[in-house]
Design a protein that fits this description.
With 187 residues, the protein is mainly β. It has one domain: Immunoglobulin-like (Sandwich), CATH 2.60.40. 14% of the residues lie in helices and 47% in strands. It contains two helices and twelve strands; from the N terminus they run ααββββββββββββ. The longest helix is centred in the N-terminal third of the chain and has 23 residues, at 2-24. The chain is elongated.
Length: 187
């Protein structure tokens, strides 16, 4: 009788221990998610594979650029946000294919493809180890998302066990232009 009671108590203790371990174990997506590094706009933010320095951030209502000898003008119902960056790869040649802005609401806004063909876009470049690469990233987002923004960069759109750099942008001190021309020197 005592053995049976002891077996039931041990089984209940083992079951509650397993339930506790299951409830406190992080989910698979959390375990294999990106390796995040964060920093401020004024700093050079470095991960194990690449580094980024935000040189300039501008807002505009209209952007213009030349593509194949033609003048292109793009307007938006929100705001254009142009981020000029300098990046360095540390160990291997790599692209930075994923660039997004996390707005004040927490939503992610990917780089806009409406500006494809503009000069100096980062999405057209590949980082080489030891060589600085300058480029520009163009975003289109609602005005209300501009108060608290974070630039998020990574090698691929949904990084798993890879570096992801988050740079907090100073939304209060971004110059606003009605019309901004993107030329071969960037912005």
């Amino acid at each position: 009788m005592i053995r049976g009671l002891l077996a039931v108590v041990m089984l209940a203790a083992a079951g509650s221990a397993l339930a506790f371990f299951q409830s406190t174990t992080p989910r698979y997506a959390m375990l294999t998610g990106p390796i995040r590094v964060a920093g401020a706009q004024a700093d050079t933010v470095s991960s194990d594979t690449f580094s980024v320095k935000v040189n300039k951030v501008l807002r505009a209502n209209t952007i213009t650029f030349k593509r194949y000898g033609r003048n292109i003008e793009r307007q938006t119902s929100g705001v254009w946000l142009l981020v000029s960056t300098e990046l360095w790869a540390k160990w291997e040649t790599m692209p930075v294919r994923a660039a997004s802005i996390r707005g004040a609401s927490g939503r992610l806004y990917r780089q806009s493809h409406r500006a494809d063909g503009a000069p100096q876009l980062l999405s057209n470049k590949t980082l080489q180890p030891g060589l600085p690469t300058t480029g520009m990233i163009v975003f289109e987002l609602p005005e209300e998302e501009m108060t608290e923004m974070t630039l998020v960069l990574s090698r691929q759109p949904f990084p798993r066990l890879e570096d992801e750099i988050a740079v907090s942008l100073d939304g209060a001190n971004i110059p606003v232009r009605d019309r901004l021309e993107i030329d071969d020197d960037g912005i």
